[in-house]
Amino acid sequence: MSPRDRLSLAGLVFALCALFPGVAQAAPLGDLVVTPGESRDAAPVRIATSAGCPKAADGYVATMRGAGLPAEGLVIVANSDVGLSHDHAFEVPVALTFKDFAADNNVTFSGKYELALSCIDSFTQQDHGGFTGTLDFVEPARYVALGPAKGPQRPTAPLVVPVDPPAPGGEQATPPASGNPAPPASGDPAPPAEQEQPAQPQAAAPVQTGGGQPLLYIAIGVVGAVAVIAAGSFLRRRRSTD
């Protein structure tokens, strides 16, 4: 390779380095708060910035540096813009637990590790500053966040991840939480009301008669007939004597 070619190659490398400086040269912007501030390594972790990213940044990436990890840092939050804010602090979840990171990278965490979230241009990867915090693994399976990085033991609010609005005409009605049907939209015919079925009359229970009741009715009839005949004879005798 001629000296001229070497000079051209060096110029090209310099230009690429200037265009893609990477995230390792992050300028300090503030602190990174870790939640839970002290916990076992199997706990899900969130990291929160102390302020918003610069306007020039449209994304962020988070890394972890320390013993047993790559020199450029282990990526714990991949390049993303979910929840990014330029006006105030924001919070993002760490991709895995520290226990999972240790297993995936065949490392035992011990001592102090630096967490860093860098505000970047997602296309060129240009760094626009970052936030840092320090963890101390006092035991291989337990860490303590140091200083300003120590957040609460549990999240104080649910992590709200914004979603893109649905495309026009593609909205789907969400069924109501209760068991009642949703009211019809304006202009839609109301569904027919369910007709109540008339109550079916219940048949009267048949009267059960005992076996001796017909004989009783016959005896009463005979006695009545005899009484009528006797009364008629008595009246005829009385008239004949008069």
- Strand percentage, roughly? 15-25%
Named CATH architecture of the domain at 3-149: Sandwich
Can you tell me the CATH superfamily of the domain at 3-149? Immunoglobulins
Which outline best applies? Answer: rod-shaped
**Which ranges are low-confidence, i.e. pLDDT below 50, for 5 or more consecutive residues?**
2-24, 205-211
Q: What percent of the residues sit in helical stretches (DSSP H or I)?
A: 10-25%
Tally of extended strands?
Answer: 9
**Order of SSEs:** HEEEEEEHEEEH
Radius of gyration: 46 Å
User: Mean pLDDT, rounded to whole units?
Assistant: 75
Q: How many alpha or pi helices?
A: 3
From the 3D structure, determine the CATH topology of the domain at 3-149. Answer: Immunoglobulin-like
Quickly name the level 1 CATH class of the domain at 3-149. Mainly Beta
Q: Structural class from helices and strands?
A: alpha+beta
Distance between the termini: 173 Å
| Main sheet properties | 9 strands, mixed
